Structures are given as C-alpha cells and as structure tokens.
Amino acid sequence: MTKHIYHNIASSKAKAQKAFAVLIDPDKLSEQGLLNTIEIAVKAKVDFFFVGGSLVVTDKLDSMVSTIKKHAKIPILLFPGSPDQITPKADALLYLSLISGRNAELLIGQHVISAPFVRQSGLEIIPVGYMLIDGGSPTTVSYISNTNPIPANKNDIAICTAMAGEMLGLKLIYMDAGSGALKAIPTAMIQEVAKHIQIPLVVGGGITTPEKAKENCLAGADIIVVGNAAEKDPELITAIAAAIHSLNK
Of 3, 96, 119, 147, whose Cβ has the fewest other Cβ atoms within 10 Å? Predict the structure, then answer.
C-alpha cells in the first residue's frame, strides 16, 4: 500500500490549502444513511472520511469501510476509540495519543497492546496528539477516557500541550470538543495553538455551520472535521465543504 496521505496533508498545509473531513461513526449510520452521506460527500469533493467513534458497539466497521471504498475514492482514515477498531481495508490510521489527559492507558498503554496488530495491518500510521477541549457538556470521549478536557478559556494549557506533542514527534495535533459538543472550540484558542506549532492542526466538535468552519480555518485549522451535525443534516456537508474550499482559490 502506498503511504502518501500524511505527505499530502503536510504538503497542503505548506500551501495553506484547507481540507474537510466527514466523521462517520459506525454505530450511528444505517446502510442507507451511509450511502446517502457518501453520495453527498463525493459531489461536495470532501477530502477525507474519518471512520470510528468513542464507543463502537456494532460490528459494522469493516463493512462500512468496504462500502465507502466501493462508492468513493475519498481517502479513509480510521479514527479509533479503542485498539480493536482497526481494519486493513482503510487507507490510514490516526494513531491517537490522548495528550490532554493523564490516563496512561490512552497515552501509551493501549498502543502497546495494539502495536503488533497495527504493524500487521499494512495501514499508513499517522501519530496524532489528541486534545480534548471543553465543549460545554460531558461527551462520550471524556466519559470513556476518564479524563478532564482542557478548559476552553485556558489557551496557555492548550498551547503547551500541542507544543509538547509536536516535540515528542507526533505528526498531527487534533483539537476536539467531542461529539455533540454544545460549543465549538474558541477561535482564539485555535489561533494561539496554530501560531505555536508547525505540524498540521485538525479541529472538530461543535462545528454546525459553514461560517464556523471557515472561521476555524482562518484561525489556523488545516483540517475541519464534522460528524454529529452532518449525521443530523447530511446536506450540511455540501455547504461546509464549499465554505472551506473557497479559501483555497
């Protein structure tokens, strides 16, 4: 398998090109819902599919990735909430280390357990510093991870956490308010973090309008991720994709 996805992400950042990823949670989309989402995403020229969730209780991950592959050429990046959310049918794996928390299992413990399977998968592995930011309400990821999010008004903590992740050799920083967040990550925090790191910055959670997505890009986000809002209104994918891609002209 050609491993080029991270290279493309880094190259896009160097050219100040913004990208849009649609997050698909295997627990939340029916087969028809998935097909509808794929169709809309292809027409909107979505850049990536992120597939996974904090709590995947169904066995649809493998079949969902196969369905996406059948109907679209959009790269599929696994966004796993646990080591067993892996399928070699995807293109790459976001190998998440929850650097905003102090749960050793999610910093390195689960990685030790999953390392042999990850290596054997043949997936392109992208090490990611995952930062959970307070979105105004408890989220599944904060509950499952047993960690506290970074307060939304503590820019200094977010900056130092992102810098540490970069210096440890992580390739992406992913700031997430969590699925179903009441509030998106403050623009000022995104801006400050972006100013202090050189690696690509991914931002998700609480983004429900094209205006917010564009605002986050202008603040320094390189990839915008939308999941929950798109599940409720798939047509939102078209509007957000257009807003983000308008910055690349």
Answer: 119
Reported as a single tens digit per residue, the pLDDT across 35-69 is: 999 999 999 999 999 999 866 656 789 999 999 99
Label the pairing between strands 19-24 and 76-78: unpaired
3-state secondary structure of 154: coil
Give the CATH number of the domain where residue 79 resides. Answer: 3.20.20.390
Q: Which of 24-28, 72-76, 179-183, 228-232 has the highest mean pLDDT?
A: 72-76
Q: Is 126 exposed, middle or buried (0-12, 13-18, 19+ CB in 10 A)?
A: buried
136-146 per-position pLDDT tens digit: 988 878 888 88
Q: Identify the domain containing residue 205 by its residue range.
A: 5-248
Do 79 and 94 contact (CB within 8 A), yes or no?
yes
**The overall pTM is greater than 0.85:** yes
What is the maximum alpha-carbon separation in the chain?
A: 44
Q: Which long-range contacts (CB under 8 A, 24 or more apart) does 155-162 make?
A: 155/188, 155/189, 155/192, 155/193, 158/131, 158/133, 158/189, 158/192, 158/193, 159/192, 159/193, 159/196, 161/99, 161/100, 161/129, 161/131, 162/129, 162/131, 162/193, 162/196, 162/197, 162/201
